[in-house]
Structure formats: C-alpha cells, structure tokens
Amino acid sequence: MSSSPTTVGVVFGGCSGEHDVSIRSAQTVAKGLTLGANRERYRVVLIYIDRDGRWWGPDLAGKVLSSGCPPADSDLPQPLPAPGFRGLPAGTDAVAVWYPVLHGPNGEDGTVQGLFELMQQPYVGAGVLGSAVSMDKQAMKAALAGAGLAQVPYVCAQADELSDAARLEALLKRIESGLGYPCFIKPANLGSSVGISKAWNREELIQGLRLAAALDPRLVVEQGVQARELECAVLGGTTLRASVVGEVRFDADWYDYESKYTAGRSTTLIPAPLPNDIIDTIQSQSIQACAAVGVTRMARVDFFYDDSSGRVWLNEINSLPGFTSQSMYPMLWEASGVTLEQLVHELLESAGQ
Q1: How far from 69 is each of 20, 34, 323, 333, CA to CA, in Å?
Q2: Which of 144, 132, 140 is nearest to 313 (CA)?
Q3: CA 231: distance to chain centroid?
Q4: Residue 346 is inside which H or E element, if any?
Q5: How far apart (Å, rounded) are the C-alpha atoms in residues 243 and 227?
Q6: Which pTM was predicted?
Q7: Residue 219: which CATH number?
Q8: 94 in a structural domain
Q9: Which end of the chain is more exposed for a tag (fewer CB within 10 A), N or C?
C-alpha cells in the first residue's frame, strides 16, 4: 500500500522587485512537482505573496500561477487587509514542508527562512545565515574575501554618502582611483540585475549611484572587466555537489534584466567550452563559496573568466536561483543528468538536513 503524499507549500510572489520573476519560477517548480513519480509523492498547496507582503491561499494563488501575472490591487479580495504577514492563509494547515520560490528581499534574504524556523517546519534551500549573507553583496564579498576567493576589485558605499556634497566627492574619488571606468553600480540587496547600471564617466557614475541608492541603503561598485560569464549550480543535503559549468552569452553591453528574461536576448552554452582545469576550479570554488557564506542545499554560483589570462573571479552566490524556463539552475542540472522531476524531488528531500 502506497504512503500518502507529502503536502508541499509552494510560496511565490513576494514584496520584492523580482516579484514577476518569482511567479515564472513557481510555474516551473509546480510543473516539476506534477511530473512522473512526483505526482504520487507530493500534494501541492500554492501560497501567493502580493507586492505588499500579504499572504493569499490556494484559490487566489492558483489563479496567479495560471495567468503568470500579478493581480492588480482591485482584483484582490476586498476589503484589503493591512500589508505584511498576518498569519498563514486558510488551506495551508496540512503543509509538511515549505518550498519558497522567492527572489530578492523578503524571501531570499533569510526573512521567510526565519519564519519557517520559528514554525519548526522544514523548508527547501539555504538557512537564515546563508540566505542573509548571500543576499547582501557587501556581506557576501567580505565573507568570500575572508575565504581567499578572488573577486574583481570593488568599493562598498552607503546611500547617505550621496546626500552630502563633500562625502559624495570623496566617494567618487575613491571609486575613480580604486576602480576607474567602466564600473558597475549595484544595490547590495537586489538580484536579477534590478537597479544595476554601468558607468563610463563621472556623470553616469553619479546617476548609477542615485538609481541604486533609491532601492537600497547599501551599495557596491565593481570594476568592469572583459570576461566571459560562467555559472555553476550546487545541490545536496549534508554534502554539496557541483553541476557542469554553463556560459551565458548575450547581445547587450552587459547581462541586464531584459537580457535575462526576454526570449532571444541571451543564449546559454551548457556545458561551456572550457579547459578542464578551469572547470575543476569553478566547480571546486562553487562549493568553497557556499561554505564561506553558510549556504546549504541549493545555490547558483556565478563567475567571470578571462580566457586570455586564465583568471577566474567569483562574482556572486544566489541562494534561491531563478527557476524559470530560461533559468540556468534547472538547465545546468538537466545537462548534469538530473531531470526537473528529480531536481525538485531532491531539493524537497534535502529540506531539513
């Protein structure tokens, strides 16, 4: 006699600039949970978090997932409750394991993971520490530097440095002398290239700093390098393993939001055409990087590679990587012999380990 299926709470949407991407990722996860043996293993309960942080149960969540688009406030049940988490919605009592499919702040940064910890229930992906450190680029870079992993030169900044002319001038000089142009300006706590800009001169640098500062009080500025963009996926319970290495190529000046999520704007090479020693280095450093920031169970680790010099720089760690049909994480595992069905099953099996 077969055992009853495990009820999985798939949480998506979120109070984040990556809300739309989360919906698309959740569509892929939900599909994976209905493939093959997973259809018998799991019962899926969908939970949607709107842009103001309200949690909605399966009825509304199912409609959002089917449409692939966030609802307007006027389409939400009225009267609207206050923004933010006010308890689990009806229909979620039976959830035995949680599967957060949330990108960016209020989901990938340890906040939801902390909620699940308080509930004493298992969940997919990294824990509170690994999620928080990976989300904040300043903290992540400090941890990676402490582990001796090579990164492109960078400068950390605070948004309030822009509010005073003397402090702004000092920051600009620090960036120009330490990094030069071109450079990339990034909010410390957003992903999917949201709020990132490339500066070729001081005027563009100031504009980029203001754009990032409007989204995050903590900023990172990185030296621009001519390099290939490589990615490696990590998976496992108590022991992590690395996937094949993939490469992203794109028709824009850099890998921005539009290039990432518009069909035809970027191409992937999986596996990437690389020397064996570079593949070994990237796979090994992917696992080292996860250990440095405390990430377990799932991550995508991104690198820069200059094939003229053979230099490899670690770019960043994504503890809840994109899971859309164009996302590298599931594609890298597919090329490594792990199907979507097997991937979501293994991620759920690792929850709580």
Answers
A1: 7, 21, 16, 27
A2: 144
A3: 13
A4: helix 340-350
A5: 21
A6: 0.91
A7: 3.30.1490.20
A8: yes
A9: N
Alpha carbon distances (Å) from 201 to 8, 176, 186, 187, 223:
50, 9, 16, 19, 13
Q: Beta strands of 204-321 (E only): which ranges?
A: 218-223, 228-236, 240-250, 266-269, 298-306, 311-318
Per this entry, what is the length of the chain? Answer: 353
Q: Identify the domain containing residue 301 by its residue range.
A: 135-150+226-350
Per-residue model confidence as pLDDT tens for the chain (353 residues): 357 999 999 999 999 888 999 999 999 999 999 999 999 999 999 999 999 999 999 999 999 999 999 999 889 999 999 999 999 999 999 999 999 999 988 999 999 999 999 999 999 999 999 999 999 999 999 999 999 999 999 999 999 999 999 999 999 999 999 999 999 999 998 755 678 999 999 999 999 999 999 989 999 999 999 999 999 999 998 899 999 999 998 775 555 455 554 555 678 999 999 999 999 999 999 999 999 999 999 999 999 999 999 999 999 999 999 999 889 999 999 999 999 999 999 999 999 77
- Shared domain check, 211 and 274: no
Q: Which alpha helices (DSSP H) does 5-110 contain, by range? A: 19-32, 38-41, 58-67
Which DSSP letter does residue 80 get?
P
- Quick one: CA dihedral 57, 11, 211, 163, positive or negative? positive
Residue 296 is part of a domain; what is its CATH number? 3.30.470.20
